Amino acid sequence: MFSLFQWQEGDIQECSFRLKIPNGVKEPKAGQLYVGGGGPHVQEIVHGQIALTEEIKKLDGCIIDCRYFDHQWLFIKQRHDRNYPNGRRSVMGKLAALEKAVSRDLLLTNLEKSKGLN
C-alpha cells in the first residue's frame, strides 16, 4: 500500500475569495474578501481585505484568486470556473502552510532518510 500526499512550494499558496466592494463609500480604498462560512446554512463571511486598483474595482461580486505576500492579499486572476469562494478552514490551512513552509530541500532530505524505514 502506498501513501500519497500533496506538496506545494511554501510561498505559492493561492486562495479563492468573493470580492465585495463596500457600498456607500465615496472612494473605497479596499475591497472585502469573503470566504465560505463552513456549513450549509452559514453565509459567506469576511476574511480580509485587498487594496483596490482600477482592474479590481470591475470585479465586485466575482470570485478572484489571491496570493498572500508580505502581510497582504495580492490579486492574481478572476475565476470564471468557480461559483463559490474557498471555505474558511481551507484558507486558514493555506495560511498555516505559509507560516510553516516545507522547503524543497527539507522535503527531499526527509524522503531520502525515510527510504530505509519501510
From TrEMBL:
Signal peptide: none annotated. InterPro entries: mRNA_cap_enzyme_C, NA-bd_OB-fold. Pfam families: mRNA_cap_C. Residues 17-107 form the mRNA capping enzyme C-terminal domain. It comes from the Eukaryota. This is mRNA capping enzyme C-terminal domain-containing protein. The lineage of its organism: Eukaryota, Metazoa, Ecdysozoa, Arthropoda, Crustacea.
